[in-house]
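Holo prediction — glutamic acid.
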Amino acid sequence: MSAYRGRFAPTPSGPLHFGSLVAALASFLDARHARGHWGLRIEDVDPPRCPPGAADAILRQLEAFGLHWDGPVAWQSERDDAYAAALARLEARGLAYPCSCSRKQWRDHAIYPGWCRDGVCEPQQPQAWRLRSDLGLRPVRWQDRLFGPQTFDPAELGDVVLKRKDGLWAYQLAVVVDDADQGINEVVRGADLLDNTPWQRQLQHALGLPEPRYLHLPLVMGDDGQKLSKQNLAPALPEAEPEARPLLHRALTLLDQAPPAALAEAPVAEQLEHAIARWAPWRLRADPERHLTAAD
Ligand code: GLU
């Protein structure tokens, strides 16, 4: 097997919160336990969603928690050429097409019905680019390391957007191209992205790229039973190491890694060293209904 290469890939739409710490920590521990490479990719593919300073805050937060990444930080905002080349490859294979349809036009359908597949419906209108999912139909399958076998019917996935009408690259294309170019072979991330994985597998197949292994983590829920997120104003993580210590301990507890109580106030480097040696992701119960509660 080739050497482990993992990554943490936050969207800098704001600073990291406790839910993103759990995802970063699990992916860090998985990589370090395997003596692998752990890269950092800032997913600023949608600049209007990324307030100035948010990416820098994320870097400081990761440092405070001792989550030191390998190599230079990768920025999606600098990868236009790579995404354009991938789209051109798909187009050359007849797997991508421009689409003028608006969501409003197909609102009575569960997925986009593919009206522009054989010619743009309204050539004078702005156009997005979509992947053709109706050619060489085959179920999308993979074995998630925690959630087990996953199977999706491509007919239910529809033709995913690759480039948006406003000219911005779609997240699905950017992630797939970056994971491949960065040699990522292990993806550890939150179960909120489980639904995105089939599109990413489809795209990897269409582009002839290797398929990484996946481990999706149960989501961290707030006291209100909602997923912790910037939208429900989960507090930002600290940027100073002493304040990071108890939160790191809590995140390790939540990941079922049973950190010793004696380490609750220990420097983050000491807590991490202990956790890396004992990392056992299977302790996280693979129950799709299970959520991690931040108040645990
Ligand atoms: N940028 C995505 C997020 O912050 C994560 C993408 C990934 O891990 O594949 O939710």
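READOUT: The domain at 78-296 is CATH 3.40.50.620 (Rossmann fold).
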